[in-house]
Amino acid sequence: MSDVLDFIPYARFLGVAVDRANGALECVLPFRQEIIGNVMLPAIHGGVLGAFLELTAILRLIDESGTDKVPKPINFAIDYLRSAGPATTRARADIFKLGRRVAVVHVIAWQDDPSRPVASGNGKFLL
Question: 3-state DSSP helix/strand/coil percent for the chain, to nearest 5?
Answer without folding.
Answer: 30, 40, 35
